[in-house]
TrEMBL record:
Protein's name in the database: Uncharacterized protein
Annotated region (Disordered), positions in chain: 130-154
Species of origin: Solirubrobacter pauli
Amino acid sequence: MSQPTTLAEGLAEYTDAIPEPDRPDALHQLFYGFYSRIAIIDRTTHELAHWAKHDLADVDGAGPVLTEAMRDNAVHVGRDLFAARMRTMSAMKAVSERLSALCSADDHPPFTLRRAVAFDEASGQLRSYDLSAPGEHPDLPYDPFTYDPSADAA
């Protein structure tokens, strides 16, 4: 068997390997697993920006040239993090589409995942949120059946 070369192929292979009745729950968990990745990326980006803005002056003996070089490198790392976030959002959309093709948001087996992790920028921390309490975190998508990162925010 060849290795999947695209996200769609990998997701199809993953889904096909799971017994049919368990697929919606597995995809729900996968969706929020990707969301946890976004939480990690967001916290890392937040910390990188803080470090570049506030902490570089505290590096002993760095001098202005090295300090500027480190800021430039922080920008490059930030770009890589942003690209990883965009790829993860695309993966979430693919999972959402596959999940909605398997069952409707109103007619699905019970999901076992009860909490999701998101980055709380106000506190600078990763936090766990109850999936049965929509609105607890403003950026946490509570509808994994219709996730679309390019849709306008409501």
